[in-house]
Specification:
mainly beta, three-stranded antiparallel beta sheet, 2 helices, LysM, DUF3794 domain-containing protein, SipL_SPOCS_dom
Length: about 525
């Protein structure tokens, strides 16, 4: 490609990838069968999920803390061989080597359960031995403003490439306090003293309006406390509650992309003063950081010859493609025991929308997930009490995106656009319209041109002792011509009788005597 006279540049604000890496970790531990569940004879199935709770950057390394959550279905060790289920959590801590990473940079992480083994503990059927293989991925980025050359300069030969990048329009941070008053669960004793509080936050939904990002999320607090009993045993309880807030981001519009990170900066749980130890108040300080971006296609120069240019290594997430699909979900079910039958439905609301699995095949992304719905209704009884029930609706769909391949990064955003519920007899019918938006990207590393160094003006050739012919250019004077050829003004005037500074015109051909050196 041969270029234009003036180099053209465009400014990009991108999340430059500093480092990324994957580390495998083996998590081993034991889970106790909770009282009053019977002991275990045989494991039937294990549903497993892993979640990252915290990523802390130290120089060239990330410390990752997370939780492995298990839902285990088993046959009881008793004559009736009844089937039961139990819930267990195992914490894990590991590190990922990330050359170049420094505290304060942005991080994104993902953990996948690659394999798991759960078996009854030898000699103790009330314990289970757990061994899991986790794959922990961490990417470190830093926001940078880069001016890239987009057109080949004049006199150069260039190789170009067309990239689609997520150009960061703006990013803003806001600190918020979310609070919740709640009762100690009935199966737990009252609280005498709080020993420790651990809190995590999860963003469940984002919505863009002009100059603002609306954020929905869930905070989960785990409380370790001394019970108000004579023997003062130590107990643990957890509480999850939802929050909704916003971050002002000037320049944001509804059609842009948004990512929000939530970091727990502080968490306190205290008994309410007016109620004796059975009612608690949680106050959690969150730092919400919103990144608003939009896809942008840009041409970059990856190789330039013929002139001097400054190249820089651009390491970014290149957007391979985007797509969306609408899915209609219909679920018919009976009211769960011991809930009464429905006479009239008052309201429906979405509690959580989650993607549980994504899989890339050639030119297609397969998505699995679920929507948790709450239905508030009037019961079919003489006193017509109001009840609420919860229902999980699973979905499976796919989005076609040309060029996607296994191993690329997938970002999925499911949004419930419409929902309705109706009841007839003992049956409740839920209908939802779900929009699933998918963006596929891959890490890309390229050397790109960011500036052009002007070529030095060559010194005109004027052999000493000779006289050359020169064509006058616009703006030339005898003095400027003498400076160009390092000669004397009077020598040029004497060599061109009849030509004066007043009648020197562009296009005239004059003689220029070259000064002999030495």
């Amino acid at each position: 490609m041969v270029g234009s006279a003036v180099p053209v540049t465009e400014k990009l604000r991108v999340n430059q990838v500093v480092s990324e890496n994957t580390h495998q970790v083996v998590v081993r531990g034991s889970a106790s069968v909770p009282d009053p569940k019977p002991p275990v004879e045989k494991i039937l199935s294990t549903d497993k999920t892993a979640k990252i709770k915290k990523i802390e950057l130290v120089p060239n390394k990330a410390i990752v803390e997370g939780t492995l959550t298990l839902q285990i279905v088993y046959v009881a060790f008793e004559p009736a061989q009844s089937v039961h289920s139990m819930h267990a959590q195992l914490p894990f801590t590991t590190f990922v080597d990330l050359p170049g990473a420094q505290p304060g940079m942005d991080t994104r992480g993902k953990v996948t359960v690659e394999d798991i083994s759960v078996s009854p503990h030898h000699g103790n059927p009330l314990k289970l031995d757990v061994a899991a293989v986790l794959s922990v991925f961490v990417k470190v980025t830093e926001m940078r403003d880069i001016d890239v050359v987009t057109q080949c300069p004049s006199g150069a030969t260039c190789e170009t490439e067309r990239l689609t990048v997520s150009n960061v329009v703006a990013s803003e941070t806001r600190q918020v306090i979310v609070s919740d008053d709640f009762d100690v669960p009935q199966d737990k004793p009252a609280v005498e003293k709080i020993l420790d509080v651990n809190a995590t936050a999860e963003i469940t939904g984002t919505r863009l309006i002009k100059d603002k990002v609306i954020v929905d999320g869930t905070v989960t607090v785990q409380v370790l406390y001394v019970a108000a009993l004579p023997e003062q045993p130590v107990h643990q309880l957890h509480r999850s509650f939802r929050f909704s807030d916003f971050v002002e981001v000037p320049g944001a519009t509804p059609d842009m992309d948004v990512r929000v990170d939530a970091v727990v900066e502080n968490a306190d749980v205290e008994p309410l003063q007016a109620v004796c130890c059975n009612r608690l108040r949680a106050d959690v300080v969150l730092k919400l950081t919103a990144f608003v971006s939009e896809p942008r296609e840009i041409t970059v120069l990856t190789r330039v010859s013929g002139i001097q240019v400054t190249m820089v290594k651009l390491r970014i997430d290149h957007v391979v493609g985007e797509g969306a699909v609408q899915v209609v979900l219909r679920d018919v079910f009976e009211t769960p025991d011991p809930k009464p039958a429905v006479e009239k439905i008052l309201s429906t609301s979405v509690e959580k929308t989650r993607v549980t699995e994504t899989k890339i095949i050639s030119d297609k992304v397969i998505i699995r997930g679920y929507v948790d719905v709450q239905v508030v209704y009037v019961a079919a009884g003489s006193d017509q009490p109001v009840h609420a029930m919860h229902r999980r609706v699973h979905f499976r769909t796919f989005v076609e995106i040309k060029g996607v391949q296994s191993g690329m990064d997938v970002e999925v955003r499911p949004v419930v656009e419409f929902m309705t519920a109706s009841a007839e007899g003992c049956e409740v019918t839920l209908e939802l319209v779900l929009k699933v938006t998918v963006k596929v990207s891959q890490s890309l590393q390229r050397e790109v041109a960011i500036s052009v160094t002007p070529a030095p003006t060559p010194t005109p050739i004027c052999p000493p002792g000779q006289t050359i012919s020169y064509t006058v250019q616009a703006g030339d004077t005898f003095w400027s011509i003498a400076q160009k050829y390092n000669t004397d003004v009077n020598a040029i005037i004497n060599a061109n009788p009849g030509k004066t500074p007043e009648n020197l015109l562009p296009g005239d051909v004059i003689s220029v005597p070259c000064v002999a050196k030495g």
